Amino acid sequence: MLHIRKLSGDEVASIPVEDVSDVRALKRRLHVQHCFVPRFQQRLLHDCSFLDDFTSLDAAMDIELVLLTYCDVSEVCVNELKSAALKGSVAKVEAMLQLPQDPNKADLQGRTALMAASRNGRLAVLQLLLEAGAGKDTADNVNGATALMYASLKGHVEVARLLLEAGARKDIVDIHGSTALVLAARHGHAAIVRLLLEAGDVVDGKDVANRHGRTPLMAACFHGHVEVARFLLEAGAGKDVADKLAVTALHAASIKGHVEVVHLLVKAGAGMNMTDNHKGATPLMLASSKGHAAVVRLLVGAGARKDIVDKNGSTALMLASAAGHLEIARFLEDGTGRNTI
């Protein structure tokens, strides 16, 4: 049996020798099961000598436990830990945490080592920092971004998975009102989007909009990320949810000419004749004015109305003509919509 005592002699734990292989394993056991500080702040002594983390524990003994507080560090040291995390230097991060250095110290921008590791996909470093008690939901001072947001916008799936398993919140918003899901959708990281949608959380976030009223589906559709849009629709995202200007996902895809996304939305039953609050434009009007022939053909073929007028009294045909898109104008002028553009 391993008898763990304070320097005062009071026993705080008794652990069977066969339950732990070495000092590091014992420290982890003391942290997880006996609620002591993380292993980086523990020192174990036997016969007045400190035990190295890799010292094997294969016989019964009395061990003294010393708990350390974090050392005072300069801004240079804070940046050094962040830099090591960014580069994925496991040995350097381990050494600095063993000082012990507080993993939650941030630089002048409020960015921590955990954010740095998440941004660059440094999974091994991330595991160390989480073990050391790094704050999972701390946000920086620049964009209000958390570690999960950094992982999501950069597409680091395993990092995001580890953060979620560690309890990171996915419903936090940055200064723009964007969640990790919005960021992942905007950047087209389908695997991250699926992970976030499947993560067990009270708030699923599929229709949580940013401060402009834009949802993850709108972000994906505007940027042409068809796979992401498909995941969101399959998860039940609102296909006709509109932002503050009454712009829908179909408006967003149509104005950018993303024909695959438009096809996906039309197939899902998205409203084709909804008008925005800015100019009173429909998706067909936007596609026509921008010269996106394939989108125009798809919308008309699916039954989009050509006779709707915007706030200036213009139809899709008039907008196409005014913009010089004569082939689209000729197509729209044909009552059957069968002409080839």
Automatic annotation (TrEMBL):
Question: Gene3D superfamilies recorded for this chain?
Answer: Ankyrin repeat-containing domain
Q: Which PROSITE patterns does the record cross-reference, listed alphabetically?
A: ANK_REP_REGION, ANK_REPEAT, UBIQUITIN_2
Q: Which InterPro entries match?
A: Ankyrin_rpt, Ankyrin_rpt-contain_sf, Dendritic_Spine_Reg/Scaffold, Ubiquitin-like_dom
Q: One matching Pfam family, short form?
A: Ank_2
Q: Which UniProt keywords apply?
A: ANK repeat, Repeat
Q: Where are the ANK repeats?
A: 109-141, 143-175, 176-208, 212-244, 245-277, 279-311
What is the superkingdom listed in this entry's lineage?
Eukaryota
Question: Ubiquitin-like domain: from which residue to which, for each copy?
Answer: 1-57
* PANTHER family the UniProt entry points to: PROTEIN VAPYRIN, ROLLING PEBBLES, ISOFORM B
Which named protein is this? Kidins220 protein
**Gene name in the database record:** Kidins220
